[in-house]
Amino acid sequence: MNELKRIFDQKTIFFLIILMIINAGLFMMSFSAEKDITLTGKELESYIDGYHEFLKMTKENSNNMSMLNMYREGFVADNIRKTARAYSGLENITVSAGENRGIVLFLEYKLTDVIIIAFLMIISIRFLQERKKGIVNLIRSTVKGRGELYFCRVLILLFSSIVLGLAMYGVNFIVMMISFGQTDVSRMIQSLPEFMQCHYAITIFEYILISLALKIFACFLLGLMFYTVISILETGIAYTVSAIYIIAEFLCYNLIIPVSSFNFFKYINIVSIINCEYFLSVCQNINIFGKAVPALSCNIFFIVVTLFFIIICGFFIHDKMYIRHKGFFKSISGKLSSIAEKSAFQRTLRGWESYKLLVKQGGLIFLMVAFFLALSSSIKYDYIYKINFHEQKWYEKFEGVITEETLISSEKILENLEDRIEAYQEKIENLMSQEEYNQNTLSHYIQYLSETTEERDALLPVLENIRDGYEYTKRTGNVINLIQPYSYDLLLNKDKQTQNRASLYILIGIAAVVSGVFAYEGQNNMNNTLKSSRRGRRLLTFIKTSVVCEVSVCICIFIHLIQFVQIGNFMEYNNPDVPVQSLMFMRDFELYISIREFLILLFGVRAVFACVIGCACALISRFSTDTATATVVSLFIFAVPSVFSEIIPGEYFVSCVYLLSGEIIM
Predict the structure, then answer these.
(1) 3-state helix/strand/coil string of 26-82
(2) Fewer Cβ atoms within 10 A, N terminus or C terminus of the chain?
(3) pTM here?
(4) Which pLDDT tens digit goes with each residue over 150-197?
(5) What are phi and psi of 34, to 5 degrees?
């Protein structure tokens, strides 16, 4: 109990509350109206009506394959039989339509898992305070020794995993209910099109409970692994080993194809368990000595066996080996550090500060996590930005410099279209007033009226753009062009959720990476030594600040480029050399520059504010006792108000997300 109170002090609880607020804010920012989340309307109804036909076809395909000679024995035959048996149990279930968007977002949202793992890593680091204070041997020599303390810490990690998992996902569930209304979670999970291949006859709520339990124990397993590694290795090497392990698991999960003979490493995998939807929502069997064993059973067995093995190894390390000054693991850690130092080139002061920031304090890991989270969040759903092709045709027709001739020509075409609409309406009325009329002729007139009306409606926004552009030219004397605005409208105007979410990722990444830049010397009792050096603190402060600015700019530019590249792949950025005022929503922008120059300016402003925020986080670390405290304070000062500004309309002026998105210049 005393150890639990020590770990969960006011600072830890405060940090937990901050993480819950940030998690809720990021989850809300995933509700993008411009992205295709799931089937709705008639498409959803069509899926519901055809679900049992899908089951029938699955069963028939299994029967047909089992009749082939090449599939009558071995793993493939067993896999076919068990797949058919699994889906046969779904014949009597009832699938029904409902509000699915919130549930799909809730089940496919991954950042919460990363937050839980990060919090468990912080707790693991806090377990080792006696190592920093040099009282390991004193604690080892007490009556209860290290063994009982180790098991207490394992229980604290388990308790933290369960409480944090329930709290974080509970907040997500509440946000989902508020945002999308009361969602019926008593429906079968197959009611969601994304989970049509799930072979378990369970409800949505039961599916959530099963997936949440797997995620919690997977996060607990990762936290316990990290605690074991950091207990026996030097901090920088522990970060490196942990990063290599996670990257290896991630690559196995993503690169190994399901039918590969090595699919065991794809499914029996920590990343696979955290992304448990992959084998819960699809019937996946693993080849175990020629037998098809369900992936869920294999993963449960993997979790239990791995936890048992790590706990036993951890007990042996802490209770039996921790007292040794030159134990086996400590010797390995020392040799690895020695080899790394000898093989490394002679670092400059800037190189050493970069090394401390990115390697010794795990900054590179936080940078990678922030980038890949932003990447996965951005490309999770495809854009559904709809373009009116009739409107696009008018843009192509009048494309070029907006002049008085362009305005007159477009207005004449509008008048002509309205005259044609009026003429077709008269013909239809005259034809229908007759007692006998040709039905085919009436159908043709109605079709012509509909097509002409559609062309007229498509011309109206283009004409409005031309009129507004001509008025701008008359008012300012600046020549502008009429261009297709779709890609720029999506990048700068429509898809604000992706832009804000990326900015919040940048803010969290900066806080996590640079918050310890000045705290590093403080927590290692080196401040007075540095102050007494010949060059003092000025040069070192300048170098640290420049490294902070470089890291902040890199993370800002690369994360914001994700959205830019994704939209560019979705639709072309046309005519980047025309004035930015050619975009109707940018007519109030004061600088008369090209779209290309505006984008450079936008990314430059984002980079400047990233530097400012990075320097502010570094300044906070100067007055903090350790890295964790600096990170907590930075997140509280910069991230929490930004999240609240997204919830409370009109409060953007307190938002660092607003600054990092570059909205201040628009």
Answers:
(1) HHHCCCCCCECCCCCHHHHHHHHHHHHHHHHHHHHHHHHHHCCHHHCCHHHHHHHHH
(2) N
(3) 0.71
(4) 788 888 888 888 988 898 898 888 888 887 777 778 888 888 888 887
(5) -90, 0
